[in-house]
Amino acid sequence: MSNVICVIKFNYPSSYICYLAVMYRWFGVQLNPQFMGIDLKFFFVRAGMMGWLLINLSVLAKSVQESDLTQSMILYQIFCAIYIFDYFFHEEFMTSTWDIIAERLGFMLVFGDLVWIPFTFSIQAWWLLGNKVELTTAAVVANCFVFLIGYLVFRGANKQKHVFKKDPKAPIWGKPPKVIGGKLLASGYWGIARHSNYLGDLLVALSLSLPCGISSPVPYFYPIYLFILLIWRERRDEARCAEKYREVWKEYCKLVPWRIFPYIY
Ligand code: NDP
């Protein structure tokens, strides 16, 4: 806040310096800083994911203690546990993602990892503690289906890109990959939309809220936030790739016109 006031009060050169100071703190300066041999980006993400799991487990313990363990709580807990353990199991895939290759480590990432992830991604669990939801069998099956499809697309797309970066000749869905300009993968999930991995993640996020029913928008905070974040992220990534790959990117866009949602966006 004081930085913002400072920008308003000072004349042009000083305001500009203040503006830069705010931006550097917010977005950070170094891309992959290390402290005593520890990669700080991975350190903070791990802490955030563990915090999310611990909060979920605390809420689960509370509902068991109060003999109030519902079907909705079980569904939410299982989906989240799979998603979080999957992160640690496939952490290597993170090395080819935007956060690692393009985002600098500043307040935004650190706050996001240590506060935003554990405390806001677990809102559904908090909400379920104080609200009863009756789910029909059809709703439970549909919920599991959304999670499964989302998880397969999310994990599959991120894995395909990671495998491609390591070995551009590795088969995708059992066939030789379609490659544009020797650099961009245009088959598998990456031939359906330019960010199918975002679509998968959004479906997973939705499936974490569906156990809460549709009586309140509160438990839908996470999918709504993720939707906004990923649309913004996709725009920034698009600009970065257009700048980096130039003609090759144009060719990829022609071949794969959909950004995230096939036939919609
Ligand atoms: P991506 O993993 O999609 O990484 C984008 C980069 O991949 C591009 O900059 C480019 O980098 C490369 N790339 C893009 N298209 C191709 C292609 N066709 N072939 C080869 N390389 C390509 O984005 P993110 O890092 O943003 O997302 C990773 C995952 O993390 C997603 O599933 C996302 O949903 C999830 N996520 C979740 C969040 C949450 O809060 N739950 C927040 C943010 C992300 P290069 O220069 O290396 O080619």
From TrEMBL:
GO terms for cellular component: endoplasmic reticulum membrane. The keyword Membrane applies. One of its GO terms (molecular function) is Delta14-sterol reductase activity. It is found in: Membrane. This is Delta(14)-sterol reductase. Keywords: Lipid biosynthesis, Lipid metabolism, Membrane, NADP, Oxidoreductase, Steroid biosynthesis, Steroid metabolism, Sterol biosynthesis, Sterol metabolism, Transmembrane, Transmembrane helix. Pathway: Steroid biosynthesis. It is a multi-pass membrane protein. The chain crosses the membrane at residues 12-31, 43-61, 73-89, 109-129, 135-154. Its EC number is 1.3.1.70. One of its GO terms (biological process) is sterol biosynthetic process. Belongs to the ERG4/ERG24 family. It comes from Oldenlandia corymbosa var. corymbosa. The lineage of its organism: Eukaryota, Viridiplantae, Streptophyta, Embryophyta, Tracheophyta.
